[in-house]
Design a protein that fits this description.
about 55% helix, Fumarate Reductase Iron-sulfur Protein, Chain B, domain 2, mainly alpha, 9 helices
């Protein structure tokens, strides 16, 4: 049995389903991150006008602490999966996969990030249909 499997089994025994599932779905060991911040420094969504509430390394830290308030963050939904974070990570962590796992957890908990009724009818008329389908698939459970 590998060390990773032992860690996953011990986390499940401790009742830390959140961390265990994020690691299982992403295939990443979140505990290999030591918060150097290189992923955050390279993230185009952090340096953009999007102004996320948390940085990528902060999200990983909160996952390590089993802090489910990370589910309220906007950054996993802004992640473009561009893989710059993975390229910059000295530990080889695929942060985009972790962001995808967080989105999956949110969707399985039925935490929608967008409600169709919140979009004004005049805005709906202007938006291309493909954009609507894409955003509703990604941001609603």
């Amino acid at each position: 049995m590998t060390v990773g499997k032992v860690l996953q089994l011990s986390r499940k025994k401790l009742g830390n389903e959140f961390v265990a599932k994020i690691e299982e779905w992403s295939g990443q060991n979140v505990f290999s991150c030591y918060w150097c911040g290189k992923c955050s420094a390279g993230c185009m969504m952090v340096s953009n006008e999007a102004d996320p509430d948390l940085m990528p390394h902060e999200i990983i830290r909160r996952i390590q602490l089993a802090d489910e308030t990370v589910l309220e963050s906007e950054l996993p939904w802004l992640c473009a999966s561009c893989e710059i974070c993975t390229i910059r990570c000295p530990r080889g962590i695929d942060v985009a996969k972790i962001m995808e796992a967080v989105r999956q957890w949110q969707q399985r908990k039925h935490k929608d990030k967008l409600r169709p009724s919140s979009i004004a009818p005049e805005e709906l008329a202007k938006l291309p249909q493909i954009a609507l389908v894409g955003v509703f698939r990604k941001k609603t459970s």
